[in-house]
Specification:
alpha/beta, eight-stranded mixed β-sheet, four-stranded antiparallel β-sheet, globular
């Protein structure tokens, strides 16, 4: 998505120092630690990281739909100047869908299979505003039109649509109350690449037309490059790098971002993507220091003891790494498979 928003404008959504944990059978799991980010009106922000890093948990926290074993332990979720965490459940309910809506990861799970689509979208609308039946149906038909689905199909059931059409229906539902912020949780995961491209093209066009901001969650760096103005890289429940997407991808300031970039295919080059060895940290009992240190080929002794701060390198970029200033030099080493193999050898040593 091309840059349309004014990042200097007052944020429509501002997360400040958010801490969230899950109560598990093995103890408290620190799912989110000191998460801070902002979203300007009309902006598209990509949240990238591997499974289990806290991306979807953050979206649920923003929506106020955490599971019963989750607890926000600190921080703020500020929407249009009001802190939803400190406010009432009713204030959060009013913001949900009307102000902040969500496109779920799987349309099959998000849609009720035994209810007509029209009834499901109508319920979302009528929860927040009353509307005559004729106006309601006209509104649902219009939503189908803008997402590229035949309005005559509003009374069909979910199973009567293809995967791509179901995902368009979820986008229609998310836009039903003209929200200021749309959270998109891996919205094209189960779709083939051609349909994925169609969905993102439609989402970009709708953002341009309706002027909502998007927070897009994905594990695919290429999707963020194609669709987002700015990027936030998460690892182990923490933000490790943030900045304008193209700048961050061109010259990462964190080894994890370098590792993600290694997984991108390169046109016209005989190149085998390099995997990051090892596995994410245990969030019930995380090791001291940097959470990526055990998988990092550039870790120093201090990295295993002191957790680095998320420090700015320019007015619009920041990274959580003791060696962020050296990353331009280290980048050439990060592009070699043997650099990462050494980490894997150490992890597998007896």
């Amino acid at each position: 998505m091309h840059q349309r928003s004014n990042i200097n404008a007052e944020p429509v959504l501002h997360i400040k120092g958010l801490d969230l944990s899950y109560a598990t059978a093995h103890g408290r799991a620190a799912a989110l630690t000191n998460i801070s980010l902002s979203l300007a009106p009309g902006e598209s922000l990509g949240l990238v990281g591997e499974s289990g890093c806290g991306k979807s948990t953050l979206l649920k926290a923003i929506m106020g739909v955490m599971p019963s074993n989750a607890a926000i332990e600190g921080g703020q979720v500020i929407f249009k100047g009001a802190d939803l965490v400190a406010g009432s459940k009713e204030a959060w309910r009013k913001a949900r869908w009307a102000g902040i809506s969500m496109i779920a990861q799987s349309a099959l799970n998000a849609l009720n299979p035994v209810r007509r689509i029209s009834a499901q979208i109508a319920e979302a609308i009528l929860t927040h505003k009353s509307m005559p039946k004729s106006e309601l149906r006209a509104r649902i038909c219009h939503l189908f039109e803008i997402v590229g689905v035949d309005p005559e199909r509003i009374d069909d059931y979910p199973h009567q649509f293809s995967g791509g059409m179901r995902q368009r229906v979820l986008i229609a539902m998310a836009l039903a109350l003209e929200p200021s912020v749309v959270l998109a949780d891996e919205p094209t995961t189960a779709l083939d690449v051609i349909v994925q491209d169609q969905i993102f093209n439609r989402l970009r066009a709708l953002r341009d037309e309706l002027d909502f901001a998007i927070l897009l969650v994905t594990h695919d760096l290429a999707v963020v490059i194609e669709n987002c103005d700015r990027i936030v890289v998460m690892y182990g429940g923490m933000i490790v790098e943030t900045g304008p997407t193209r700048e961050v991808v061109r010259a990462p300031s964190h080894p994890y971002t370098l590792g993600l970039r290694n997984a991108l295919p390169r046109l016209g080059v005989d190149y085998e993507p390099i995997a990051i060895p090892g596995r994410p940290p245990d969030l019930v009992d995380p090791a001291p220091g940097c959470r990526f240190a055990a998988r990092c080929p550039f870790a120093l002794p201090v990295c295993r003891v002191v957790t680095p701060d998320l420090l700015p390198s320019t007015p619009d970029r920041a990274a959580r790494c003791h060696r962020a200033g050296e990353m331009e030099t280290l980048a050439s080493l990060a592009g070699k498979v043997e650099t990462w193999n050494r980490v894997g050898d150490l992890a597998n040593a007896p």
